[in-house]
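Case study 2.
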Amino acid sequence: MPRPWTALDRDADIENLDGSQYDLLIIGGGITGAGIARECALRNISFCLLDKSDFAFGTSSRSSKLFHGGMRYLARAEFGLVRKAAAERNWLLHHLPNLVRPLAFVLPSYENGRTSPFQVRAAVFLYDFLSDTFSKYKNYRKRSILSPEQVREMEPSVALSDPDLGPMNMAGLYYDTNCDDARVTLEAIKESLDYSSGQSTALNYMEVREYINDKSGRVCGVIALDLFSGKEVTVYARCVVSAAGIWTDQVVATAGHEEVRVFPTKGVHIVVPRERLGNINAFSLTSIDDGRVFFILPRGRVSIIGTTDTDYYSESVDLDQPWSNRDDYEYLMKTVNRMFPQAQLTDTEVVSAYAGIRPLIKEHGEKKESSISRKHEIFKVKEGLVAIAGGKSTIFRLMAEDLLFYLVKNGQLALPSPFKCYKRGYSKKPFQIGITQNAFHSLVQQRDLIDIVSPGQLEHLSSQYGKGAIKILEEIKQKPSSGKPFLPDYDFCQAEIEYILQHENAPCLLDVLCRRTEAQWQVWHHRQPALAKAVAEVMSAYYGWSVLRKEKEIDEYLDYVLKNVSFLQK
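Prediction:
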């Protein structure tokens, strides 16, 4: 079971942080920073992880919810990137099975479309070959080729012909995985703190304001501000690492680094009822406007449609709050309604939406946003300060490993004994919280927790919290009313929220509903006020909020929800 990690201890944690010394100080609590923390903890390196917002606040909670090799990168001959990403996906599939789950994709080819039958066959073959050949961990299942008749049987709602594209020739079936990106980030941080046995720290809402230099001018620490109390603390480290994602340029500029390294692009996702769209599996579609590849992703009662890929600086420089707009929505829906003609989705079918920003590495010359590489880069800012940027969430472990070996190679960090800590792949270990469905159900029987909740709610808890769901079920057994869902047709309940508050350091309502759970985009936007009120009541009782604080939390969350779907107001 995970150890307690609650915002109730925040003041004491900050008090202990002031003046402390660590091996590594990590700026940024997204999936890259979380991966670095886990890499440190497994190798007995002390760390301090600070984020100016919540953990997974940025890109790490606003992705397509996939860990994948990147099928579309094959067209750009980025075989090395696909190989690495697919290998990392397979490791996660085996070692964090409740959160990283198999997902079948249909890749269709139409007579007059942009993708020929040969290209589909080559792509699905090469994807599996790069994934599994000479790999310890294999993909869930092998590819297959489907005739139009087989596609009709498997996916009765998809168009087998189109006025412009012509008839469907065939389709490829391949496998990737879906995930809860924010929860993977949180579990990596929680596990890091467990492995560190008290020698490391992770705090959200701590903004790094200034770097501390020693007499030689080398960075040896930071001054950070607690955004709740206004208290400043000084933290020292042998080395400071920026893993700030889309905020990388801002973070390193504070140290005098002026070169622009990050090219931010916006990705928008629209969420609709799955039964209205009619897809059974995931789809890899090509936009009828510009030929870009985007996905339709089934997730329980809903399907996620996305993502777009547009230059974000052409719209705004507010990296904290990207929003979907009408153009984004219509771009995605135009192709979806052509490929699923019976659906003919309109504004009234939009459950929710969200937008994120990719921290791509800026490349020389003119390039379309979708053609910029997803490779990561490590660079020295100044003595004692290193940055890592770019990359894909799927390879967060590999990025963290690359960073640590970069620091060791450059004499900024030493790996402790035993010698095995020096080996590549050392961190490819099972996550402590991870568990298969079969093992989970056996554990439920052993603990006499059968029929505590409905089968649907049991699946929700086990997939999201893994072994931690046992603690939630035990609480519901002691207090059955805590397992009653807040809303009909949704599984979120009081015992789940209390588990989050006890074990996942979530001081704000936005943290719980946007990142500790997937409620912000899974629940209809017009039903969010009732959910927000119910969850805020639980948090108010736990944290001792005043009525004014509780209402403020509700208002801020609902404002965020409404801004995400503001494009519906023409």
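The longest strand covers residues 166-179.
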